Structures are given as C-alpha cells and as structure tokens.
C-alpha cells in the first residue's frame, strides 16, 4: 500500500510540475512574441517614414546619401 501511495504522489508531483513549467514557458513565449510584434510595428513605421520622406532621415531630417553606383570589377589579362 505504501508503494502505491508513493507512486501516486510521484505521478501527481510530475503532473503539477509539468503544468507549472508549461504555464511558465507559455508566459515567456507570449512576452517575447509581444516584444517582437512591437519591434515589427516600430520598424514598419520607420520604413513608412523613410519612404514618405525620400532623401531625408526620418529621425533627424538630415539628407541621406544618394544611391551608390554599383560597378563590377573585372580582371584584365
């Protein structure tokens, strides 16, 4: 009878531990997801501001450098 009670207590402890751990991990995952969503919203807002103010920094209104010309380098024999 004592063995059955011990096994039952171990099983209950394992279930409670698993439930507590799952809730803790879910809470952390939700916090990280909320933080990432906020960062995505901020980046989207900044990109929208950049596209609206072509040639100016949306934060400080300084002129942005123009596009750089891409030149391909070839090796001459």
What can you see in these coordinates?
This protein has a domain at 1-52. The chain contains 1 helix and no strands. The chain has one helix at 2-52. The termini are far apart. The mean pLDDT is 84.
Give the integer mean of the pLDDT values. 84
Number of discrete helical segments: 1
Look at the helices and sheets and give the structural class.
mainly alpha
Helix content, binned percent = 55-70%
Beta-strand content estimate = under 5%
**SSE topology string:** H
- Tell me the distance between the termini: 91 Å
Q: How large is the radius of gyration?
A: 29 Å
Characterize the main sheet: none
Shape assignment: elongated
Count the E strands.
Answer: 0
- Uncertain runs: none
In short:
The protein has 1 helix and no strands. It has a domain at 1-52. It is mainly α.
List keywords for this structure.
mainly alpha; elongated; 77 residues; 66% helix; 0% strand
Show the helix and strand layout.
Blueprint: H1 2-52
């Amino acid at each position: 009878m004592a063995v059955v009670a011990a096994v039952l207590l171990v099983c209950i402890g394992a279930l409670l531990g698993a439930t507590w751990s799952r809730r803790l991990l879910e809470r952390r995952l939700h916090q990280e997801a909320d933080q990432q969503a906020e960062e995505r919203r901020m980046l989207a807002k900044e990109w929208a501001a950049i596209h609206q103010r072509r040639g100016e920094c949306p934060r400080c209104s300084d002129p942005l450098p123009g596009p750089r010309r891409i030149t391909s380098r070839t090796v001459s024999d």
